[in-house]
Design goal:
alpha+beta; 9 strands; three-stranded mixed beta sheet; six-stranded antiparallel beta sheet; rod-shaped
């Protein structure tokens, strides 16, 4: 705010300079002297004309005309006493009154039409941006009020105007807009963040969330592709499953929505307060479908032994096998290597052959392998692990600790 008022003072001083310049600038000529020279020249020209007219017999009273000419010349020269008695205003008086009038009119006009209160509020919330951001990100503090959310959006917009390459700043603005149900701002901010950092999973999820708010089918399809990509990259976040389930329900694909909701139940467990809410969503989808749907998903926790050296490139291959039958996998999936420990979820969407289902298994074994060359048929040097045989529905965990 100090910078703003300083700039107004500078502009006002510049206005004073424009007033003072014509008042105090030294004239390069003398008006009285120029008038006298002009009168003398006129007097001489008129005398010559009278001489010519007298010689031609046109003028007979030359002396009287010369007297009149001299009288008119004297009348054009102000008397000294008239100059002394005349009223004059000093340039300093004119400058002082004009400068005062300029300052009063300028600041009075701005105070009425310049939205001074809004500018002051804007400047104040810019200074409060760190505190508002900390309050937003701190779960132990009270949530921001509606006015504070609007203030935070305005402050973030101001900062991003000067720092347009801050992907995390655009992400934060998009999240605030999502909380405020401002679809246009959310989509625009998330798109900028995605353009700046398209590989960041949080940015990808935020962009998908904003696109899901749109009524445009093409944008919703793009959002689904982003979310599926996050699942393929093993980005385990309940919001990904929740968004996919809700979108499937809106499209009338109730079986798919049920599959995602049941996967969420597997991840959170029956002790979580959200488990019963997901049950109600599943029951509602089954009611819309007109039948009960049985889907099975298997969450698998994978850890890596400390002796395992993870390659810079490669994939994690996870497969489910019938514990009592053929070693050919019933279901399988590939993931980026990522970090460990981690949890992946396989379901009937990962079955290898039509007609098969994970739910048909009474017991199962899970195998995981870190494929270093991208070719699943070669195993030389690959690290792998295998779970114990477990009954369907039991927790599955394994450790990768062996090498081919």
């Amino acid at each position: 705010m100090t910078t703003f008022w300083l700039s107004t003072v500078i502009l006002t001083i510049a206005g004073f300079a424009f007033i003072a310049l014509p008042l105090f600038r030294k004239q390069n000529f003398d008006d009285d002297a120029r008038r006298d020279e002009l009168n003398k020249a006129f007097y001489k020209d008129r005398l010559e004309e009278l001489e010519d007219e007298t010689d031609a017999g046109v003028v007979v009273d030359q002396d009287d005309l010369i007297v009149d000419l001299k009288q008119s010349l004297l009348e054009d020269i102000p008397a000294d006493e008239k100059k002394i008695g005349s009223f004059t205003i000093s340039p300093m008086t004119v400058f002082g009154s004009s400068a005062l009038l300029l300052a009063v009119i300028s600041y009075a006009t701005y105070s009425v039409f310049g939205s001074l209160d809004k500018v002051s509020h804007w400047q104040n919330i810019n200074e409060q941006l760190p505190a508002l951001t900390q309050k937003l990100m701190s779960p132990e503090q009270d949530s921001l009020s509606e006015d504070e959310l609007k203030d935070l959006k305005l402050a973030l917009r101001t900062r991003l105007h000067y720092q347009p390459d801050d992907a995390q700043g655009w992400l934060l603005l998009g999240r605030i807009a999502l909380a405020d149900r401002d679809a246009d701002t959310a989509t625009g901010a998330m798109e900028k963040a995605h353009n700046l950092d398209p590989k960041d999973p949080d940015v990808r999820l935020g962009y998908a969330q904003s696109l899901m708010m749109s009524d445009n089918e093409a944008q919703q399809q793009f959002a689904r592709s982003i979310l599926i990509g996050l699942l393929q990259d093993d980005y385990v976040d309940l919001r990904v499953y929740s968004l996919l389930a809700f979108n499937a329900y809106q499209r009338g694909n109730y079986e798919e929505s049920i599959r995602f909701w049941r996967t969420m139940q597997k991840l959170i467990g029956p002790d979580d307060s959200r488990y019963s809410m997901l049950n109600r969503s599943i029951e509602n989808a089954e009611k819309m479908l007109g039948k009960a749907v049985t889907t099975t998903s298997v969450p698998i926790t994978i850890t890596v032994d400390q002796n395992v050296q993870l390659p810079e490139q490669g994939v994690l291959v996870v497969s489910i096998h019938d514990a009592n039958g053929t070693p050919i996998p019933v279901a399988a999936a590939r993931y980026p290597i990522g970090t460990f420990p981690r949890t992946v979820v396989l379901d009937d969407a990962n079955v290898m052959m039509d007609g098969q289902s994970i739910s048909q298994l009474d017991s199962l074994i899970v195998k995981a392998r870190i494929d270093t060359d991208g070719n699943v048929t070669t195993k030389e040097g690959d690290w792998y692990g295998e779970s114990q045989a477990v009954k369907m529905g039991d927790q599955v965990a394994l450790v990768i600790d062996k090498q081919y």
